[in-house]
Amino acid sequence: MNVEHLETLNDPRLVPYCGLAGKRDHRDTGLLIAESRFLVERLLASTLEVESILVDDPAKVPDLPPGREATPIYCLPRQQIQELVGFNFHRGVMACGRRPDLTDLRQVDWPDQERLTLAVAAQVVDPENLGSLIRASSAFGADALLIDDRCGDPFSRRALRVSTGHAFKIPIVETPHLLEQLQTAKSLGFELIATVLDESATHLKKEAVRCSRTALLFGNEGFGLEADVIALADRRVTIPMERGSDSLNVSMAAGVFLYHYCYML
């Protein structure tokens, strides 16, 4: 393991880490930043390309799995790193990775099985909600996640923290053409199920079967799915609630739906 001690913040290799406090979206760079030993280890364990690791102490370098031995490792004193990133850097380690370039469901390396589950997020703006939705999708066995370009950045520092690195584990397709991709999902054999707040929709507790290929559609935190997305769906399903409750947080609702369709059916 070769740790290189850098002497200046102007080193071009540090550019990806510069001014992170003011960056909420890294889509235009093609990069992502994993902060904390835990997330860096999950990034290193993934199939994503890792550009570099940055530490404030060589003792904090995480174990490099096979094939990662040549990953560049840079070291700077903590005070300099804090000046570089623009916030109180107390975790001691971060890494720069390259984002996956998935823009079409046909690019996904689908498992060789007939039963598949696709999660779809439309305009889920809040990075914490999106991170939680990613975590639930991965944990409950969804095979991929499709999001539109109006969602938050799934690889932002906050979304990655909340997802606990599950964004490195599940294929995430990002598209500016959601309706087209939903049509693609249909062509791949997926039944589209719109999750809605509507008493006229099928109650989840009455759902006893599922198609072998199922896509669950989740909408914006405030207004849900837009009419044109619902119109494309094959069915609409809602969660019955007690005590006058009229809604759940989108990530909580996603967890309920995903568990039901992935484990109960």
Automatic annotation (TrEMBL):
Residues 120-259 form the tRNA/rRNA methyltransferase SpoU type domain. GO terms for molecular function: RNA binding; RNA methyltransferase activity. The keyword Methyltransferase applies. The keyword Transit peptide does not apply. It comes from the Bacteria. Keywords: Methyltransferase, Transferase. Gene3D superfamilies: 3.40.1280.10. Pfam families: SpoU_methylase. GO terms for biological process: methylation; RNA processing. This is RNA methyltransferase. It comes from Blastopirellula sediminis.
